[in-house]
Design brief:
With 191 residues, the protein is mainly α. The protein is built from eight helices and no strands.
Length: 191
């Protein structure tokens, strides 16, 4: 809680709450999917789509935790999907190179969106210099609509850091062909 406050961010403290959230989501996902696989093996219950039947090795689990850029800002992938992708199995078996659309255009678009987010962040930072003061601001000369507009732009400036990271991650996923494979598979009607 202390690290998540805006005052701590403005002082330069590192915010690790998002990464811990992703770590927690992945730990819970593996535990529940293993429990589903365990039940299926021992009690002949209904298997779920993402059930796993053996615990991952430490190396596989570390790859799952820190792979695909999902540690810092998400997204949370299921462990079985990660293993199929990492090993090129199931729906991730390599298709012919003619099946894949080009990656240069979408990756450049994501990189430009990331650069735009950064530029806009610094531009708004020169206008809104003290975001925490906006919350406690009590200036009678500013009307309700003015306060809403200031609050909107302060919130936008805060979110632009996340947009930068998300678009940068998107570009990396596109260039790794992960995002392109998913798009191809969805286009074919597969999941």
């Amino acid at each position: 809680y202390e690290r998540a406050s805006e005052e701590a961010w403005n002082q330069g403290s590192i915010d690790f709450t998002g990464s811990f959230m992703m770590l927690t989501l992945k730990l819970i996902s593996v535990a529940m999917d293993y429990q589903d696989g365990y039940r299926r093996l021992h009690f002949k219950g209904k298997a779920t789509d993402h059930a796993i039947y053996s615990l991952p090795s430490p190396m596989e689990f570390c790859g799952y935790l820190f792979g695909l850029g999902g540690t810092l800002v998400g997204p949370q992938w299921y462990y079985d999907e990660y293993i199929r992708y990492a090993n090129g199995l199931g729906e991730y078996e390599r298709m012919g190179t003619s099946d894949f659309p080009g990656t240069a255009g979408p990756a450049a678009k994501a990189l430009m969106a990331s650069a735009f987010s950064t530029a806009l962040y610094f531009q708004l930072g020169s206008v809104i210099t003290d975001r925490p003061a906006i919350v406690t601001m009590n200036d009678g000369s500013i009307g309700v609509w003015g306060k809403l507009l200031i609050g909107f732009f302060a919130n936008l400036q805060y979110r632009l850091k996340l947009y930068f990271a998300w678009h940068l991650e998107e570009a990396a996923l596109i260039l790794s062909a992960y995002d392109v494979e998913i798009a191809c598979l969805r286009g074919r009607g597969s999941h």
